[in-house]
Amino acid sequence: MTSPTPEFSRPVRMDQLARHAQGVTISAEPAEREALAHRFHLLSLDRLEAEYGLTQDSGGISARGHLRAELVQACVATGLPVPESIETDFVLRFVPDSETGGEGEELEIDSNDCDVIGYDGQVIDMGEAVAETVALAMTPYPRSPDADAHLREAGVLTEEQASPFAALLSLKDKK
After folding, report:
1. How many Å apart are CA 167 and CA 135, to the nearest integer?
2. Residue 48 pairs with which residues in a beta bridge?
3. Distance between CA atoms of residues 151 and 157, nearest Å
4. d(CA 7, CA 94)
5. Closest CA relative to residue 119, chosen from 29, 34, 6
6. How many CB atoms lie within 10 A of CB 32?
7. 19 burial via Cβ count (<10 Å: 0-12, 13-18, 19+)
8. Residue 11: beta bridge partners?
């Protein structure tokens, strides 16, 4: 069974690597951005572009580049729009699927390691790799600047008000 084509697909065949060695720019078209916004549960994805270069060595293919994205997520507390700009460098390593390890196999990495992506040995998809990198760079639980005020109006207690120590303090104040 083959996987469906990703929303932002920019395949690179192994025989094209030399043409992607430096200074390649990719940008998502409006329909691709709309599909990615739906996939990542965004209110909108107004910009997604990246510049990258590829190098090959005996262990796989390395991609180094820079991406930019403009997106809007819903606030986790209020649902209000929260705009976000992402501009970050990335380093990715593509290794043949046979070398990525079996399912359930533990892999130890540290914060200096680059993301490792498996591929079939014939084609890598830089569009999908950039889309996944943006998804990882997004704020995981966005909050609007007005979230605390909206929550107070709705009667939601703050962490300090809901703590067990706040309940004990209220008993002390009643004496």
Report:
1. 40
2. 69
3. 8
4. 20
5. 6
6. 19
7. exposed
8. 125
d(CA 81, CA 42): 9
| pLDDT per position as a tens digit, 139-169 | 999 999 887 777 777 777 666 666 676 666 6
Range list of β-strands (E), 111-169: 115-119, 123-125
Q: Which of 4, 11, 75 is closest to 43 using CA atoms?
A: 75
Q: Which tokens belong to 84?
A: 């976000």
Q: Which amino acid is at 122?
A: Q
What is the rounded (10 degree) CA torsion for 64, 107, 10, 72?
A: -80
Q: How far apart are CA 109 and CA 124, in angstroms?
A: 22
User: Tell me: the pLDDT tens digits for 69-78?
Assistant: 999 999 998 8
Contact 28, 50 (CB under 8 A): no
Question: What H or E segment, with its residue span, contains residue 134?
Answer: helix 126-137
